[in-house]
């Protein structure tokens, strides 16, 4: 009965975790007990906010900076690694253009930075380029483009992954350009691409839009060059060359 009443009171006061965590807190003094109790409630609320931010971000997988290798990246002379990992580039509303071959770590880095940003209280949105372009076309056709773009405008970091894998429909390219143009000097954009700037027009199919897009991204941006062979290919080859690490070893014939 008492526990039920406490739960009702906590619900009315919007103290969702208090009734769950109070038995775990030692009582040394009344003030200490309340301080520890409210600290636990605040921690639970922050954890809940982090989960919601991660859901909204839409990361396809979890990648961290601790797992990332910087050995294949060439940073511009004006770009320090700490400027990126400290998320100062987001505070400065700067862009990242991660350029390099398939499997060289571009997506890993932007997800890791985005994950750290979300866990630091920032709003992040992650899209593959083709998915974002299709979403923009669908919303525009349904008349709900405004609500979708307002959500994008609420974020601190917009990640657009895999620019260059598929050419864009002309109208989709125009809508995508408008989204990125609206980010200029307002929020950060991180783009991954396997194409050098000179080939972006093969995806956007409009030289004017391509030039304007690159101009906005580069003005307050950092172009990160990813070199070396594909990590995934290198990992697969290492598995083949070392049968002991393979998931399924070949059965050995029985000794007669």
Widest sheet: strand ordering: 1-6-2-5-4-3
> Could you spell the SSE succession in H and E letters?
HHHEHHEHEHHEHEHHEH
Uncertain runs: 248-256
Query: Could you tell me how far the N terminus lies from the C terminus, measured between alpha carbons in angstroms?
Result: 74 Å
Number of domains: 2
CATH topology of the largest domain: Rossmann fold
- Supply the number of helical segments: 12
Quickly give the CATH architecture of the largest domain.
3-Layer(aba) Sandwich
Overview of the structural elements:
- The chain has 256 residues and is an alpha/beta fold.
- It has two domains: 2-56; 58-235, 3-Layer(aba) Sandwich (Rossmann fold).
- The chain contains twelve helices and six strands.
- It has helices at residues 2-12, 18-21, 30-57, 81-85, 88-91, 106-119, 129-142, 145-153, 170-183, 201-204, 207-219, 231-241, and strands at residues 73-74, 95-100, 124-128, 157-163, 188-193, 221-226.
- A six-stranded mixed sheet has the order 1-6-2-5-4-3.
- Strand 4, helix 9 (170-183) and strand 5 form a beta-alpha-beta unit.
- Helix 3 packs antiparallel against helix 6 (106-119) and helix 9 (170-183) packs parallel to helix 11 (207-219).
- It is elongated.
- 25% of the residues are buried.
Report a brief summary of the structure.
The protein is of the alpha/beta class and 256 residues long. The chain contains twelve helices and six strands.
Topology:
Elements: H1 2-12, H2 18-21, H3 30-57, E1 73-74, H4 81-85, H5 88-91, E2 95-100, H6 106-119, E3 124-128, H7 129-142, H8 145-153, E4 157-163, H9 170-183, E5 188-193, H10 201-204, H11 207-219, E6 221-226, H12 231-241
Parallel strand pairs: 2-5, 2-6, 3-4, 4-5
Antiparallel strand pairs: 1-6
